[in-house]
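Sorry to interrupt, but I need a hand with the structure work. Could you write out one complete protein record for me, on any chain you like? Just paste the record in under my message, thanks.

. . .
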Amino acid sequence: MSEKETPLTEAFFYILLSLRKPNHGYGIIQEVEHLTNGRVVLGPGTLYGALQTMQKRDWIRIYSQDTESRKKKEYMITELGKEAFEAERSRLKELLDNAKLMEEGET
């Protein structure tokens, strides 16, 4: 199974979702928390470990970097990242569709 076909962790899923437009680390944390109504709160270790892994897989890239203040980096999803995200979205849709079919069959 390739990395693109491997199910994403929830953190990876939401990080990729939040990078549909350029975003920095703290912005990603805020957006994921907002999208999940506070259910998912990414810690810095989880976030930056995931960002590093996704960069190695070429799923995200650095969009811009402020070399002055705190060296704030903005990240952006790549085409490979979009493919990995879409594969996971399709996998999750299949799960939900099958669960719905089973529920309908039981009524």
Q: What stands out?
A: The longest helix spans residues 79-106. The CA atoms of residues 21 and 78 lie 11 Å apart.
